[in-house]
Fold these 2 entries.
Entry 1:
Amino acid sequence: MIGCSCYVCSSQNDQDKRLRSSILVESDSTTLVVDTTPDFRTQMLRENVKKLDAVLFTHPHKDHIAGLDDIKAYNFFQNKPMDIYANAITQEGLKREFFYIFADKKYPGVPSVNMHTISDETFLVGDIPVTPILVYHLKMPVLGFRFGSFTYITDANRIDASEKQKIIGSDTMVVNALRKKPHISHFTLQEAIDLVNELQIPNAYFTHISHQLGTHHEIEAELPPGMHLAYDGLKLKFFH
Ligand SMILES: [Zn+2]
Ligand SMILES: [Zn+2]
Ligand SMILES: [Zn+2]
């Protein structure tokens, strides 16, 4: 955190150097990211991502959309608009924050997007099946996504029983766990652990971590079997 000199922010362990939360999902033919954080450009450069087919958005908070402008590099090299997928409230947020992308008369060189509306149906991005999962971030509806045996949920603190059914059977889940102290719109570490146990997910990784949670080593040592803290650059293999 900017300006903070706590022991987590001063840790020299790379696993304690956390950019904003996002994932990249890749099959042999298709590459997508979930959210374009303020760190999107840094993340794409770090991982040397040369091709990007689509962006899926979870919700319109700034830490999940701010990097959208930087998709223009992919527009340039791929010579086409970027396919972006969002629900209605996220589309409103994107149109407000990035008015120039959606303007009738566009300034040359601004990003170009092809907007798709996410309903509650499973859809395909290239050859990757995507099942949206509705979760709540206090009162804001947020989308989680299931890709075959892998589920990604960020920025939630409540999931209805019917949506939990869509997660059950996943082999691996990434879910947000902000800190130990209660928060009005994010799962705490214990709430995230309880959710993983309730849904009987064999492999879980916690993300969207605050410096208030503690260091990677410290928390990793406390977690039950099958549960881990995610870290920047973590790679997982799964099959759909
Ligand atoms: Zn700190
Ligand atoms: Zn949020
Ligand atoms: Zn967030």
Note: Residues 189-199 form the longest helix (11 residues).
Entry 2:
Amino acid sequence: MLSAARIMQRCEALARHSELPGGLTRVFLSREYRAAAEEVLGWMRAAGMHAQLDAIGNVAGRYEGERPGAPCLMLGSHLDTVRDAGRYDGMLGVISAIECVAALAANGKRLPFAIEVIGFGDEEGVRFGTSMFGSRGVSGTLDAAVLDTRDAQGASIAEALRQFGLDGSRFAGVARQKGDVLAYAELHIEQGPVLEADGLAVGVVSAINGFSRLRATLRGEAGHAGTVPMHLRRDALAAAAECVLAIERIARSDPALVGTVGRIEAKPGAINVIPGEVQFTIDFRAPQDALRQQAVRAAIDAVQEVAGRRRLNATIERIQELGVTPCAPWLIEQLERAVAAQGMRVRRLPSGAGHDGQAIQAIADIAMLFVRCKGGVSHNPAEAITEADAGVGARTLLTFIERFEPRS
Ligand SMILES: [Zn+2]
């Protein structure tokens, strides 16, 4: 029997492994991460799985199918958190997957394939700035150089792994081969308001949005705030204000597009000095690459136009770019049938946030199931779901697993 109450209790239990008193912060390879990993390993074993830490700190459990050594259906999510996090982001997916395996084991049920549940150690990238480190290891897309990445205290990932009792040099052995993994499915809190607005407990993800990140620098001329007349100024901050609003207008031009200026810095940054130089970031996300790239071009044009009109110099660098990761249509169909089997209306929606599936798609087709969250709030201690929704999510996942048909 699936127990939604137990899922909620376990989310609470994991939230207690935190470096932040009264809140939740648990970064990769910390003491708190160790405690959480031990607890999850215990739950996996109690659910009839063979479970252990892999060489790069992922928690990995396996429930054999009818025939030992069969390829697997991989389930999972992440066990690390952002700072001052909610208690469902990541954990809910790992705990729900274990709950499904426990339900199968309780009935002595074996499937024609194995099930593997992975609690990825580092999805958020808070400690080392290396997001999806754990899932990139599993998908074989990790470069050895990443192990030299250091945290704020100067410790490298390799050193932190050693302190944790693991040998990071064996990272290549964590990688799974294409034929070993029939598909990857992740249950995750929505982290947005769409399902709540539609009155639905769960939704099926169509694609994980791609993103483009840029940094713009505007150079004008610093000057005395009292002596330079307005018509002679080349104020970089006033120009940046126009740019921010132009970027907002571009982002609003299509309901599927979002755009954010999340950071701005003015120099020299004094109350009595005209800002001579301003740097700001731009982040665009969309479910189609073409839509996102079009927005990036429009933003670059807008910044250049503002700079030209105001006699400023503008440079725009592209910092990071990741294309859309589509969920596989054959898995979307199976997941939607599982939603319909709960008597629920089927709703497809894109994921605005990044997820481990973006790494795993290198070795397997992926699918995601979203569970409604309260007020669309996430990456925040106020993150909340209801026990009823946790139950619908887990039952949908279990139905999907039981009826899963590998692509022939
Ligand atoms: Zn997450």
Note: The longest strand covers residues 210-219.
